Amino acid sequence: MSGGAEERSETRRRVGAARRLVVKVGSSSLTTAAGGLDTARLDAVVDAVAERCARGGQLVLVSSGAIAAGLAPLALARRPKDLATQQAAAGVGQLALAHAYATSFGRHQRVVGQVLLTADDVVRRSHYRNAQRTFERLLALGVVPVVNENDTVATDEIRFGDNDRLAALAAHLVGADALVLLSDVDALYDGDPRRGGARRITEVAGAADLNEVRAGAGRVDGLGTGGMASKLAAARLASSAGIPVLLAGADAAVRALGPADVGTAFAVTGPRLSARRFWLGHAASATGRLRLDDGAVEAVTQRRRSLLAAGITGTTDEFHAGDVVELVDATERVVARGVVAYDAAELPELIGRSSRDLPAEFRREVVHADDLVVVH
Ligand SMILES: Nc1ncnc2c1ncn2[C@@H]1O[C@H](COP(=O)(O)OP(=O)(O)O)[C@@H](O)[C@H]1O
Ligand SMILES: N[C@@H](CCC(=O)OP(=O)(O)O)C(=O)O
Questions:
Q1: Which of 48, 63, 306, 347 is such that its CA lies 20 to 30 A from the CA of 150?
Q2: pTM of the complete model beyond 0.90
């Protein structure tokens, strides 16, 4: 697609040269057509990861496949639809998956450590930092962290939903230099490749390159969850936060983790955010909303100013000082997220009023510019 040869080589060069890498592999790449764990394919991914570690890389492997690996032992013909059976299958399958990874990495004398995360671990700032410390120590010890969502306890409300998103969040959390998404498809296409006639896309320089792309669901036999749409969302999330992304086929793992000359490369589209600002913009869950008038939207998004009470026209009523809130425009479109400095109960008296008309204790900003991230 767009992007000249120079740009092309720069993204791939960065992926190829990355010291710290998050690699994500999907369920459909780790399971046989019959639904069992495909150890030959798992070994091939492990070989590529171990080889990169041997060259001095620090790798984090985000692996799906717990539910898929639990199907055969439980004599389930297909992925269950209800959450309780999915969780039971994940409980059985995660153990099989962890065992398979430990055995496979053992062939390379590599120790692996299992990290099971729930959305809460990134949503709450203290948990986020705790997870960061754990990864840091595992990597310092030369261990390959094998990460999955903690499916057995994650309920619908608190799920990451898909491991592509989890991998993008993990990539920022560990300060990765690049993110590699391995799937059962060799690249991004402008339409579902199973339909025929779809064109392969090798480079994505920015959002405009995705305008014509139709990202569909995964296989009909449905072991993967998000299909290409969740991969694209994850690639955009990571690349907008300064992390280059490569999407490639799991069967080309050696080249994806070697010269990075396969698949689709997503160039970075934004600066690397600090851990706090990334968390604020992408990981934290908001507990309330502040509605802004047009002037305040402009001040906050264009001039990067703090939000003052004068520019607020309405609020929801259940948040406390220190909570993360969404800042929305008159049409309820989210324009920014930030940490609010007041309880919801305090604001009705203040909103719409200029700071100089307020008592001294209420003259501080409602959301300080340092605690505010603009949403594009
Ligand atoms: N535009 C597209 N480009 C590439 N693949 C697509 C596209 N739209 C849909 N797909 C399908 O998405 C699938 C990958 O998603 P999924 O099965 O969820 O993978 P994983 O298990 O690796 O997460 C591919 O098998 C492919 O057929
Ligand atoms: N955590 C789930 C996988 C969720 C998921 O995103 O799967 P996939 O689309 O195959 O990457 C599991 O291990 O079964």
A1: 48
A2: no
